[in-house]
Design brief:
The structure holds two protein chains of two kinds. By secondary structure, chain A is α/β, with parallel strands linked by helices. Chain A is 32% helix and 18% strand. In chain A, strand 13 and strand 14 form a beta hairpin. In chain A, helix 11 crosses helix 12 (328-342). In chain B, the strands form three sheets. Chain B has a ten-stranded mixed beta sheet with strand order 5-4-6-7-1-8-14-13-9-10, with helices on both faces. In chain B, strands 2-3 form a two-stranded antiparallel ribbon. A two-stranded antiparallel sheet of chain B has the order 11-12. The radius of gyration of chain B is 21 Å and the shape is globular. Classes of the chains: A alpha/beta, B alpha/beta.
């Protein structure tokens, strides 16, 4: 294959969308991280004082009305739906993809979706209806009549794919798709599958999205029972301390990242400048019984595959955005894997982690990291607050050409992706 | 590079099923070939007062128990998956493959629903603003594992761990298209060189009150029937909704050369995969079957086949008024004047709808049908619907050789998938 055809087959990013606790546009978020701000605050929307940790990085400022949803549709929406809609719209606009730019059946959408939970209070009318004299609750009454008081669309709101379908409907996206769930690996899988759908020719343009779960009593309970929440966390950063032995725990975050991807040749044909190149992907699995993270071997294998598929060596990587969520066992495995893969090249390699300031956004995390990585490649600067060594605010001028982004799940999956500057 | 990738052939070297019709592939296929129904009155939970009281239950004695890490999750859906996987990996001889890092898993599964008593207990601890975790812990009446029961990736993690698979592990949650999409994604991963072998498929059990009422509330389930066995009647004029069921299907997909090198028995080939979105309405399919057309055409393109190359279609065929009509329209749109000559049948007439398991179960029955030259019937064809005028293989299986087939799966919300499968010829 000659150099030109190789270049034309490269998968490039032509648009990004981002919503997280630091803002609802990329510019807002970028300005916030270079100012050294944290998105971790006291939880709003419900009383979280009974939980081990009552702070989180929640998204603010999104509502269904301003995003143009009909009241009927918004009945089955939660924060995750709004984040996905906003980010996909922004990403398409950024990539200059309107209804005529790409045939709709060739516009793909792959998503990693976080857990979608029951809304407990929606059961209230049915519970009230099912009360009977002398008894708090009568099951026969509930099964016979009471359940009819539940809103007909209540069960739909809990399906993992419904937000995804709402976005496809609203934006007329008809192409290839898959929904993966629910941890950080699923967001990376969405990116990887989007890459392959372009390279195989199934899609002309592909969106890859990662969407966090909505922070709710359910999600906090799940995190607490899984041993993820730190105790005594306070608003601001510093609650998540990756790679620090003395702390074990993470703070939940809400967010969504979206990438628009195309083959270089397609972007060039449309006259849209590539923002960056997605050049490598590696996936692996390995879990020891009872462990809440992939093994060192699995994390290493994912990074090695990503680097080799990008046709580079470890020493060609300039920057790592680690998964690093503050969970001691997983972070320890990740650091050992980094040492194994990078050896001496890793000695001065900057390692960033976004979860200290954005929270653990799970399915969204790797895509958010990729969106931030695109900004770093283009700006030639690194927001210092994201450094794993816990520096404060400001930026560090450091031109980077290639960034490795890691993601893992507590169930044992490890995924790594390589992003390169558009001219690399 | 891409053309070289496209040349990698992907074959099926193992399959496992557990359905209301049978405890394995052979039993399920044989019962289906006899036109038996697996639908009956539900005994798994109290259906008194509900407009639909029937479903396709799997005999509990057919299911694997849980051992090791699986014991942490007492889930019926996981038991279904584990049972189907055991047959699939056994028939494929998966244990003999040395390079475990080249074996991945892709599973369509949606986790387990809590029971009504558990939800009500939770409701009692929620005052509209705060969940009283201290009281929940102190009382000990609410099973804490319920907070984790709906995690769908537990299935693929347990599968990969117990089968010692170190390759990519994907958890697919695309509703009724999940099983097909899991196989489609696995197919792509082998074709692009990310893995040599993939354990793929799906399973679900929604035969519990919370899972069931969701579909009752949107009036999707059959509610007019005299005999449970006649309630699922895809394409028949008197169809009035689908019948909820449970089950799982798992296949072992393998790179052709890899399978040949180890002397594996090859039962068929995946030729292509297509997916699409209706982009129409959450609760309705596109009236002209637009999304279905896109998925079918994409699968044909991917397989580099023309519509005339297809000799059988395993329909999504849910027995709802909407699906069966729009699927018929989509097939007519794609296949034109040939549409009426292509036999098309719905396994759901006998098995019901297994949600995340459906696409995988139906793909496996399609493969076995090609191997045995048998097209499974659509049972309960009694009243012809003039708008559903294709050859639905009515009521009796047909002995007819066929080489290439499609298997359709259309998910709730508008996600569609189509697998193109072929008989293996070396």
């Amino acid at each position: 294959m000659d150099a030109d055809s190789s270049r034309n087959d490269r998968v490039v990013i032509t648009g990004t969308g981002l919503v997280c606790s630091l803002g609802t546009t990329i510019q807002e978020v970028w300005n916030a991280v270079i100012s050294g701000r944290s998105g971790v605050r006291q939880i709003e929307g419900f009383n979280a004082q009974g939980f081990q940790c009552s702070v989180a990085a929640q998204v603010q400022g999104l509502d269904s009305e301003s995003l143009g949803f009909e009241p009927r549709d918004s009945r089955i929406m939660d924060v995750h739906s709004l984040m996905l809609m906003k980010s996909v719209r922004d990403a398409l606009s950024h990539a200059a993809i309107d209804n005529s730019a790409v045939p709709r059946e060739k516009l793909a959408l792959f998503a990693g979706m976080g857990m979608v939970d029951y809304r407990i209070d929606d059961l209230l009318p049915a519970v009230v209806k099912s009360g009977s004299a002398g008894k708090l609750f009568d099951y026969r009454s509930f099964y016979g009549e009471g359940y009819k008081e539940i809103h007909p669309l209540w069960p739909l709101s809990m399906l993992n794919n419904i937000s995804f379908c709402q976005v496809a409907i609203a934006l007329d996206i008809q192409g290839e798709n898959t929904v993966f769930s629910p941890d950080a690996d699923s967001g990376s899988c969405a990116v990887a599958e989007a890459m392959w759908s372009l390279q195989e020719g199934s899609a002309v343009a592909a969106l890859a999205a990662g969407v966090s779960e909505t922070i709710s009593p359910f999600s906090l309970a799940r995190a607490q029972l899984s041993g993820m929440l730190p105790s005594g966390a306070a608003p601001g950063d510093g609650n998540v301390r990756p790679f620090y032995n003395e702390q074990n725990g993470t703070v939940l975050g809400e967010g969504c990242g979206v990438l628009v991807m195309e083959l270089h040749s397609a972007a060039e044909k449309r006259g849209v400048p590539p923002l960056a190149v997605l050049s490598g992907c590696g996936r692996s699995f390995g879990k020891e019984d009872g462990a809440g993270a992939p093994t060192v071997r699995a994390i290493s294998a994912a990074m090695e595959k990503a680097i080799s598929s990008a046709e580079i060596g470890p020493c060609d990587i300039d920057l790592i955005i680690a998964h690093a969520d503050g969970m001691a066992a997983g972070d320890m495995n990740e650091i050992k894997a980094l040492q194994q893969v990078f050896g001496d090249c890793g000695r001065d390699l900057p390692v960033l982690c976004s979860k200290a300031v954005l929270g653990q956004t799970r399915a969204a995390a790797p895509v958010i990291d990729l969106v931030l990585a695109v900004s770093m490649l283009r700006e030639g600067t690194i927001p210092v607050i994201l450094r794993a060594d816990r520096s404060n605010s400001g930026v560090m001028d450091m031109p980077v050409r290639r960034i490795l982004v890691n993601a893992r799940s507590c169930e044992g999956q490890a995924v790594s992706l390589v992003l390169e500057e558009a001219g690399a | 590079m891409l053309k070289e990738i496209a040349k990698r052939r992907v074959v099926i070297t193992g399959a496992g099923l557990v359905t209301p019709l049978g405890r394995n592939c052979g039993e399920t296929f044989d019962k289906a070939a006899q036109g038996c129904s697996g639908i009956d009155y539900i005994t798994a939970f109290d259906t008194a007062g509900l407009p639909c009281r029937i479903g396709g239950q799997v005999d509990d004695s057919w299911l694997e128990g849980h051992e090791g890490a699986w014991q942490r999750f007492p889930s019926r859906g996981l038991r279904l998956l584990r049972t189907a996987a055991r047959e699939a990996v056994g028939s494929a001889g998966l244990a003999e493959i040395q390079r475990r890092e080249r074996i991945g898993c892709a599973i369509g599964f949606h986790g387990d629903n809590p029971s009504v008593p558990d939800l009500l207990l939770l409701h009692r601890h929620f005052d509209g603003n705060a969940l009283d975790m201290h009281r929940i812990a102190a009382e000990g009446t609410y099973p804490a594992t319920n907070f984790l029961a709906r995690k769908p990736d537990v299935a693929v993690s347990l599968m990969a761990t117990s089968l010692d698979c170190g390759g990519p592990a994907l958890s697919v949650t695309s509703a009724c298209a999940a099983g097909s999409q899991a196989i489609g994604e696995a197919f792509r991963m082998i074709r692009n060189g990310s893995a040599d072998v993939m354990v793929a498929g799906g399973g679900d059990s929604q035969l519990n009150f919370v899972g069931f009422i969701g579909f009752v509330l949107i009036k999707a389930l059959s509610s007019k029937y005299r005999e449970p066995q006649k309630a699922s009647r895809p394409f028949d004029r008197k169809r009035n909704g689908f019948v909820m069921s449970e089950g799982a299907g798992i296949v072992v997909l393998e790179d052709h050369d890899h399978a040949r090198a180890r002397g594996a028995r090859i039962m068929g080939e995946v030729l292509g995969y297509g997916a699409s979105a209706d982009a129409y309405r959450i609760t309705d399919t596109h009236p002209k079957g637009l999304g279905a057309c896109i998925a079918i055409r994409a699968a044909l393109d991917d397989a580099d086949l023309a519509p005339d190359d297809i000799q059988y279609i395993n329909a999504h065929g849910t027995s709802t008024t909407q699906n069966d009509l729009t699927e018929t329209l989509a097939v007519k749109e794609v296949f034109g004047t040939s549409a009426k000559q292509i036999p098309l049948s719905s396994n759901k007439s006998m098995i019901g709808h297994t949600i995340g398991g459906a696409g995988a179960i139906e793909a496996i029955l399609t493969l076995v049908g090609m191997e045995r030259s048998i097209m499974l019937p659509t049972i309960n064809q009694e009243f012809r619907d003039p708008k559903c005028d294709l050859d639905y293989v009515p009521n009796e299986a047909r002995l007819q050789a066929h080489e290439r087939a499609l298997s359709n799966s259309f998910g709730f919300g508008g996600q569609n998938a189509c697998l193109c499968l072929g008989r293996y010829h070396g």
